[in-house]
């Protein structure tokens, strides 16, 4: 996807974000020194396996990390000159749902089962936009129609349990878009939707972006969604960013072995003859991270230094960066499955 044509103003800059959780199994470092920026009118894609820190990063920015057991150890999240991480809860609630909105990945728990869809949609617009009850209801119906819910004027008065999982997700999307936010954080927003509705929702997000200059943080495991909507991508593994690149560069020339693994394990229409190669093993236990590079036990390019050096992000030949000691275009490839078996034995 080409670069956005709107303003390049940086709306949100995240610096050295670190989040920990105290659990019965020990201290879990869920996010480890994440840095990135989000510009007006662009979509920043965040990809990685479950447990990589994608959702925790978003929840930290929204002030939704339960404390305890969670704790934001360090970092800044600068939005229009204000640090979201240090903002009083009342001030943050004025921004949350209004200027920065979030689509949660689980509509089953994100919607209140005791309130009608109208109650939940109109609460946002009456509080943040000052609409009357009648205006807020009309706006809610309009938003439900935009996200493809049939008979919206009737269904708006129903309860969440009367909607399918996909319909509930569309209600969540309508709620997040209601106030035309500066920043939309979308956490797996199309997971519960079929392919046709997924395409409609992505087009709706693009339309909002073009009309309002909305910046989108798209969190997903679906590389097809990333290819469709993102301008830039950050790949996360074991709580940290291991690669940053434009979407075109990421698909054409991945620099980190984990990024390459994600691409090789997913079917691509431009490489139908390519053999699918699943990434062996499982993501590491974040309470017992291995020494050196966290991806080393699963990496087909690892070398001896990988066991003692946790590589920092370094500039690639393009505008991106990656955290790896090897050049995967030149390094020999070995069987990572055998390496995992040896370490477990």
Automatic annotation (TrEMBL):
Query: Does this UniProt record's set of keywords contain tRNA-binding?
Result: no
Report the record's Gene Ontology biological process terms. peptide transport
Gene3D superfamilies recorded: P-loop containing nucleotide triphosphate hydrolases
InterPro entries found in the cross-reference section: AAA+_ATPase, ABC_Ni/Peptide_Import, ABC_transporter-like_ATP-bd, ABC_transporter-like_CS, Oligopep_ABC_C, P-loop_NTPase
Q: Which SUPFAM superfamilies match?
A: P-loop containing nucleoside triphosphate hydrolases
Could you tell me the membrane topology recorded for this protein?
Answer: Peripheral membrane protein
CDD domains cross-referenced by the UniProt entry: ABC_NikE_OppD_transporters
Q: Which Pfam families match?
A: ABC_tran (PF00005), oligo_HPY (PF08352)
PANTHER family the record matches: DIPEPTIDE TRANSPORT ATP-BINDING PROTEIN DPPD, OLIGOPEPTIDE TRANSPORT ATP-BINDING PROTEIN APPD
NCBIfam families registered for this protein in UniProt: oligo_HPY
- Name it: Oligopeptide transport ATP-binding protein OppD
Q: Which organism is it from?
A: Blastopirellula marina DSM 3645
């Amino acid at each position: 996807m080409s670069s956005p044509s709107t303003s390049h103003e940086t709306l949100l800059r995240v610096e050295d974000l670190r989040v920990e959780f105290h659990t019965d199994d020990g201290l879990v470092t869920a996010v480890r020194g994440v840095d990135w920026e989000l510009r007006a009118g662009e979509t920043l894609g965040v990809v990685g396996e479950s447990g990589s820190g994608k959702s925790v990063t978003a929840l930290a920015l929204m002030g939704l990390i339960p404390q305890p057991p969670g704790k934001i150890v360090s970092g800044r999240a600068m939005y229009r000159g204000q640090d979201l991480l240090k903002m009083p809860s009342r001030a943050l609630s004025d921004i949350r749902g209004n200027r920065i909105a979030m689509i949660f990945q689980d509509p089953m728990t994100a919607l209140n089962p005791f309130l009608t869809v109208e109650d939940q949609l109109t609460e946002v617009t009456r509080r943040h936009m000052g609409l009357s009850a009648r205006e807020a209801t009309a706006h809610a119906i309009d938003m439900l129609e935009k996200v493809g819910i049939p008979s919206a004027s009737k269904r708006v008065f129903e309860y969440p349990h009367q909607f399918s999982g996909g319909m509930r997700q569309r209600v969540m999307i309508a709620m997040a878009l209601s106030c035309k936010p500066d920043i939309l954080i979308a956490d797996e927003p199309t997971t519960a939707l079929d392919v046709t509705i997924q395409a409609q929702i992505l087009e709706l997000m693009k339309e909002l972006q073009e009309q309002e200059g909305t910046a989108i943080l798209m969190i997903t495991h679906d590389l097809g969604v990333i290819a469709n909507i993102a301008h830039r991508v950050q790949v996360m593994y074991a709580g940290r960013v291991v690669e940053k690149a434009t979407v075109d560069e990421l698909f054409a020339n991945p620099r980190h072995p984990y990024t390459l693994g994600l691409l090789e394990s997913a079917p691509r229409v431009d490489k139908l003859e390519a053999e699918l190669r699943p990434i062996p093993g499982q993501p590491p236990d974040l309470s017992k991270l291995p020494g050196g590079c966290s991806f080393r036990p699963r990496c087909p390019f690892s070398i001896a230094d990988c066991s003692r050096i946790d590589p920092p992000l370094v500039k690639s030949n393009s505008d991106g960066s990656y955290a790896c000691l090897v050049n995967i275009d030149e390094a020999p490839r070995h069987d990572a499955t055998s390496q995992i078996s040896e370490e477990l034995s």
